[in-house]
Design a protein that fits this description.
Distance between the termini: 21 Å
GO molecular function, one term: peptide-methionine (S)-S-oxide reductase activity
Structural class: alpha+beta
Protein name: Peptide methionine sulfoxide reductase MsrA
InterPro entries: Met_Sox_Rdtase_MsrA_dom, Met_Sox_Rdtase_MsrA_sf
Number of strands: 8
Largest sheet: 6 strands, mixed
EC number: 1.8.4.11
Keywords: Oxidoreductase
Strand order of the largest sheet: 7-6-1-3-2-8
Shape: globular
């Protein structure tokens, strides 16, 4: 098996970003979790309170021989609204911020370049932050693969996720699993 790479991305509700990346060719795992806050091992309830400093995020594991980090970042910046500060739609608070957490200087440079590439596609300035790597805390088990199960019965997910998946299929057709 070839070497895997990871990227940690926060684009609002982790159920929504996880659903997008589970459909991307070359992505071998997507884990929902929390990063960037001050509380060790936070719970979903704590993070939702907005008091921990954590963002809802995903850790994307991918095969760089199949999909590049640049392509992962382009998909990320196209499938959520990176111009909304501390929110995504009706999800409001720093836990829903748009952020990227580089593992090293090469990822930092790639993330900066991705923001520059994406800016012409958005009418307002991109506010996605590039934050220092921090401890990663996996979300509770019931959040993992949420769209494939409970999400199919969740009105919020039914309203938000299908348009993201349609944009993925339209804009990145060559990178979508069959």
């Amino acid at each position: 098996m070839s070497e895997q790479a990871t990227a940690i991305l926060a684009g609002g509700c982790f159920w929504c970003t996880e659903a997008v990346f589970r459909d991307v060719i070359g992505v071998t795992e997507v884990e929902s979790g929390y990063i960037g806050g001050t509380v060790e091992n936070p719970t979903y309830k704590q993070v939702c309170s907005g008091t921990t400093g954590h963002a809802e995020a995903i850790r994307v594991t991918f095969n760089p021989e199949t999909i590049s980090l640049d392509q992962i970042l382009d998909i990320f910046l196209a499938t959520h609204d990176p111009t909304q500060l501390n929110r995504q739609g009706n999800d409001i608070g720093t836990q829903y911020r748009s952020a990227m957490f580089p593992a090293d200087e090469a990822q930092q440079a790639a993330m900066e370049a991705a923001i520059e590439r994406a800016q012409p596609d958005w009418p307002k300035p991109i506010v996605t932050t590039i934050e220092p790597m921090a401890p990663w805390y996996p979300a509770e088990d019931y959040h993992q693969e949420y769209w494939e199960g409970e999400g199919q019965r969740n009105p919020y997910c039914l309203a938000v996720i299908p348009p993201k998946l349609m944009k993925l299929r339209k804009s990145f057709a060559g990178k979508v699993k069959a």
